[in-house]
Amino acid sequence: MRRRSFLAGNWKMFKELDEAKEFVLEFLPLVSQVRERQMALAVPFTSLSLVAELAKDSQLIVGAQNCHWDNEGAFTGEISCSMIKTCGASMVLIGHSERRQYFGDTDQIVSRKLAIALYYGLLPIVCLGENLAERESGLAFEVLSRQIKTSLEGLTAADAPKIVLAYEPVWAIGTGRTATDQQAQEAHSYLRARLTDMVGSEAAVQVRILYGGSVKPDNVASLMSQPDIDGVLVGGASLSPQSFAKIVNYLPI
Ligand code: 13P
């Protein structure tokens, strides 16, 4: 099964409005030849409308980095999927490890956010991954199994192809310590097997699984050469238009 490559950036809490605008104006011409691949950027809420507007005639998919699990209500400081949609965005990151680590996002919360993102027709990128202690004590797969089971609880075979998964080992995020191609492939193939248990193989083979954690222009091609790595989720290297464009335009090996 050939899955369409998905190259996504996550700006995290970087870039004010002017910087976001400058980035998009520089970036879009650098990727104007992209056809087969999909590319996306998850930007801060404050830049969502602006970036979505600037990107509307391009191939760039624009998304948020988080959402609330409800449509509206007394949730001071929160943003709903319907609000994200009205900004012109079409994607949302869910359960990023920084949300899990600092803001209490649990697998149960992730599953509620996933349900509402699907309800509103946003493309959800569900993030998971083990931390260093879990990897070193040989628990990585156990953790992944628990995370995927609960985070995707209730996901139907019909909806599965509408989601993207991102495997982001916490020990590789922002550390410069990328998982090896083999480590990433092993985790991706494990996740696809669990997905198969949950929704069946016909749906599971259609789900794109991204790798995230210190992806750079010089390691993207070898990661992408792995059979179960369908894309990347890039933090630091997505902050410069040149380096993110190099990642999007990588030459397959
Ligand atoms: P880095 O690419 O900076 O390691 O961040 C990865 C990440 O968390 C993307 O969501």
Small ligands present: 1,3-dihydroxyacetonephosphate
- Distance from N terminus to C terminus (CA atoms, Å) equals 19 Å
Using the coordinates above, name the CATH class: Alpha Beta
Using the 3D structure, state the CATH architecture.
Alpha-Beta Barrel
CATH superfamily label: Aldolase class I
Estimate the helix proportion, in percent.
Answer: 40-55%
- Give the helix/strand class: alpha/beta
Morphology call: globular
**Low-pLDDT runs:** none
Give the strand order, joined by hyphens, for the main sheet.
1-2-3-4-5-6-7-8
Backbone CA Rg: 17 Å
Major beta sheet, specifics? Answer: 8 strands, parallel, barrel
Number of domains: 1
Average of the residue pLDDT scores? 97
Report on this model:
This protein has 253 residues and is α/β, with parallel strands linked by helices. It has one domain (6-248): Aldolase class I (TIM Barrel). It is 41% helix and 15% strand. The protein is built from 11 helices and 8 strands. The protein has helices spanning 17-30, 45-54, 81-86, 97-103, 107-119, 132-136, 140-151, 181-199, 201-204, 220-224, 241-248, and strands at 6-10, 38-42, 60-64, 91-94, 123-128, 164-167, 208-212, 231-234. An 8-stranded parallel beta barrel has the order 1-2-3-4-5-6-7-8, surrounded by 5 helices. Helix 1 (17-30) packs parallel to helix 2 and helix 1 (17-30) runs parallel beside helix 11. The longest helix has 19 residues, at 181-199. 1,3-dihydroxyacetonephosphate binds at residues 10, 96, 168, 173-174, 212-215, 233-237.
